[in-house]
Amino acid sequence: MNKSILLCGVGGQGTVLASKIIAAAAMNDGNTVHSAETIGMAQRGGSVTSHVRIGTAFSPLIPLHGADMILAFEPAEAVRNLAYLKKDGLVIVNRVPVMPITEALNASGYDGSEMIEYLKKKTDCIVFDGSGLPSAKFLNIAMLGVAAGSGRLGIETDLIRQEIERRVPPKFLDANIKAFETGIRTGGEN
Amino acid sequence: MKQYVMGNGAIALGALSSGIGLIAGYPGTPSSEIIETVSKAEHDGVHVEWSVNEKAAMEVAAAASYSGARSMVTMKQVGLNVASDPLMSLAYVGVKGGMIVVSADDPGPISSQTEQDSRRFAEFARVPVFDPSSPEEAFDMVGAAYELSEKYHTPVFLRPTTRICHAYASIDVPEEYHKKEYEGFVKDSKKWVIFPRLSFENHAMIEKRNAVISREFSDTPFNTCEGASSKAVVTGGVSYAYAKEFLKDDPDIKIIKVGTPFPFPDDFVLKALEGTDEVICFEELSPFLEENILRLAGKHHLDIKVSGKLDGLVPSSGELSANAAEKILGAFFDIAPESTEEAKDVPPLPVRPPVLCAGCPHRASFYAVKQAMKGKKAVFCGDIGCYTLGNAAPLDMVDTCLCMGAGITMAQGFYHMEDDCTCFAFAGDSTFFASGITGVVNAVYNEADIIVCILDNSTTAMTGHQPHPGTGRNMMGDIVEKIDIKAILEAIGLKKVVTVDPLDLDAAVNAVKECAAEKGVKAIIFKSPCIALSKPAGKCKVSEKCINCKKCIRELGCPALVTEDGQVKIDENLCTGCGLCRHVCPVDAIGGAANE
Lengths: 190, 596
Ligand code: SF4
Ligand code: SF4
Description:
The structure holds two protein chains of two kinds.
Chain A: E1 3-10, H1 15-28, E2 33-37, E3 47-54, E4 67-72, H2 75-80, E5 85-94, H3 113-122, E6 124-128, H4 139-149, H5 157-167, H6 170-189
Parallel strand pairs in A: 1-4, 4-5, 5-6
Antiparallel strand pairs in A: 1-3, 2-3
Helix pairs in contact in A: 1-4, 1-5, 4-6
Chain B: E1 2-6, H1 7-17, E2 22-25, H2 33-40, E3 47-50, H3 54-66, E4 71-76, H4 77-82, H5 84-93, E5 99-104, H6 118-125, E6 129-130, H7 135-152, E7 156-158, H8 162-165, E8 167-172, H9 189-192, H10 196-217, E9 224-226, E10 231-235, H11 238-247, E11 254-257, H12 266-272, E12 278-282, H13 288-299, E13 305-307, H14 322-333, H15 361-372, E14 378-381, H16 406-417, E15 422-428, H17 429-445, E16 450-456, H18 485-492, E17 496-500, H19 505-516, E18 522-527, E19 540-542, H20 551-556, E20 561-564, E21 567-570, H21 580-584, E22 590-592
Parallel strand pairs in B: 2-3, 2-4, 4-5, 5-7, 6-7, 10-11, 10-12, 12-13, 14-15, 15-16, 16-18, 17-18
Antiparallel strand pairs in B: 1-8, 9-11, 19-22, 20-21
């Protein structure tokens, strides 16, 4: 299997853990995997991406027009990285915006909705409403659920669940598995 | 055993697999995780340290290798500038146990001051360099570099770049790591004490030896030639990965990969160039491969056209990518690009510049100095660390930033040249230890009137919170004596050293005013822990007393101060209850948090 998955969001949203889970699950499925993080500075709030490349790959980063799936934790970040999407690729996006931290100083009026409309118009996309989760802390696992539920990830859902169980602290496991199931339902409906 | 690790982790595990006895370095993106990986791994007593700076790290590692142990020293490329003094001499003296200098380059640059090329540094120092094109290769190169280092008694460079350092791959590693046995230091002053006579002899020996290594490199598996064509691409490092991503395994396209750029493997490249009359050198940073191909062309009268950075086909700055390969190599090899549509009518995207965190004590320190100096002529010399972000609006409190430690000394230059100007230097605690202390000595000795502000947050925050001499912890996991910044400053002879909590704004402003009124070198230690490492004090809240003047937002720019439908409020998910905004509000509308 050859698949490239780009995860994007804002620092602090948990994209790195999600990418590690995908990578590990794909490896347990017998694939060669490479991935890369664009590591920002220590401060929170910047744009971050993780590139997961399953199968044959040379460049650590996915080339433009090379991603089979974009898993976007934030609407504007999906649009920012859209050039990475393959022609027939899938975008999975969380509807809830993260305001830029400079918003109060320089108001832009951003609220995420135009991004979602743009994505719906231009791409094959699944919109997930992360505001329904009990906490934004579970968003990354829920997004994995949507990806698994969409049937387009190419990795068995159970392998992903196993990796979640392995990597999430026991205290938060139940809540995360619930979020994962919620995600799977959204992914399956589309 | 397979382990899925970052490129930096692969380098660390390569070093452990090679039986290192010591690793030292100074934090710097993109190199920091090498030392962190070694310190976290199970091993039988490798000495691991964050040294006070790169020069110290290089010297510590050099002595380990004089003892016969294998050693590694790690840094980012600009750190190599600091370590260049011992490096240049060490290249002459040589080593006994294998020694690898990892200098991580940062094309872009993504998080550095310069786009310097460590391959040049290796050539300048006349020491061999390996240039990995993947984390897997980095792991293998570490083993080969130790063999080479011991065979020729020379330090050897490993030069990864950011994308290799931060890429993940599965590496086959041993179940256990064991330190290689070593003999111990054998005294021999003719060997280990550098004198002009020894340097002269060794210089001649090194040039002869490098010719031998060049031939040996011509046979390493790290240099490869794939495909056959009259046109060829010469590449190395991550640029090779980009070229392969685009060109794939096409037998009709020649890809020459140079994994050991110095001593340049002349024989290998000459052979690889047979049947080729046009090459493009596809590389980042400097035209290193390109100049070597030109040298070979001149030396051997090759009838070959050489392209790359020097004729503008490859950009002279910035990083490359698979898409740069598609554009540049596609044009060179006449491969039609895949048609892709340009995205149209993209809605304007919000920008997310890096800013100081909500509740960051640096914000309070800068604000206190700004308040105290309102209306007075002052210059603010910044330094390298999170606090460089104090340059952004609305604080606008960093007038200069040159390199690590430069703030303290530059403030002195301004003092000697500017009239009636209060000259401030801002340095973090880690920076103070790394290269600030000598600057303070210089100020006292040469009678400069400056105010040194130490922003002491008890960590090396920007590179990922490493400990340093002032934190009382080291990389061996030991609790050690904390080195007291105040005591150092007093010992240097400063008459006025004030320690103040920047979040106690009135006290902080008064401390600055007091210092500004006195002559000589003064220091203020703004002491408050990094917010990313400490428990928040609570949450602040805006009450109905708020007249919505937005002074808090305009003056501080704390990310937790937001507006909702035009009304100022505090985002509870971000606020740490530092209380700074309470001091700023003119009508006392902000309350809450622990210090209420
Ligand atoms: S107390 Fe005020 S300045 Fe401090 S973090 Fe909260 S909102 Fe920001
Ligand atoms: S400074 Fe005080 S009154 Fe002015 S907007 Fe901020 S909280 Fe409201």
